[in-house]
Amino acid sequence: MSSKILIVEDEIIIAIDLKIRLEDLGYYVPGIAINGRDAIKKTGEKNPDIILMDILLNGDKDGIEVAQQIRNQYNIPIIYLTGSPNDSMIERAEITEPYGYINKPFDNTEIETAIKLAISKTNNSG
Q1: Which domain holds residue 98?
Q2: How buried is 66 (Cβ within 10 angstroms: 0-12 exposed, 13-18 middle, 19+ buried)?
Q3: Are 66 and 53 in contact (CB under 8 A)?
Q4: Total domain count, the chain
C-alpha cells in the first residue's frame, strides 16, 4: 500500500503540480489544504502518513506554527516545502522536528528521497 501524503500549500498551482508528481511517483494524495485551519482539519479527517507543509503559509499561522500544532495533536511526520530558506526560519522550524525539507522549484528525485527518508525514519522509530 502506498503512503498517504497530505499537501499543505497555499499556492494552488504549486499544490496541483506537487500532487501530480506524487501520484506519478506512486503515492496517494488524499487532499490539499490551503491554510492552517484546513491543514489541521484534513489531518484529522484523512490521517495521512506524511504531510508536505509549505513553511510560508498565508493566513493567521505560518507553516511552522501549523506543523507544531499537528505534531502535538497527531504526531504525523512533516516535511517542509520552502522556496527561500533562511537561518532564522530553519531554526524556528527545527523546533517542530521536521523529517526533511524540499526546496522549490521541485525536483522529483528530491521529493522521492525526502519521502523515503521520512518513511524509513517513521518505520525505525516504531
Answers
A1: 5-125
A2: buried
A3: yes
A4: 1
Q: At residue 31, what are phi and psi to the nearest 5 degrees?
A: 175, 170
Q: Is 6 strand, coil or helix? A: strand
Separation CA 119–CA 17 (nearest Å):
22
Per-residue pLDDT tens digits for 40-69: 999 999 999 999 999 999 889 999 999 999
Contact 50, 77 (CB under 8 A): yes
**Please, are residues 10 and 33 in contact by the beta-carbon 8 Å criterion?**
no
* Residues written for the chain: 126
pTM above 0.70, yes or no: yes
Phi, psi angle pair for 61, to nearest 5°: -130, 140
Cα–Cα dist 108/72, whole Å = 30
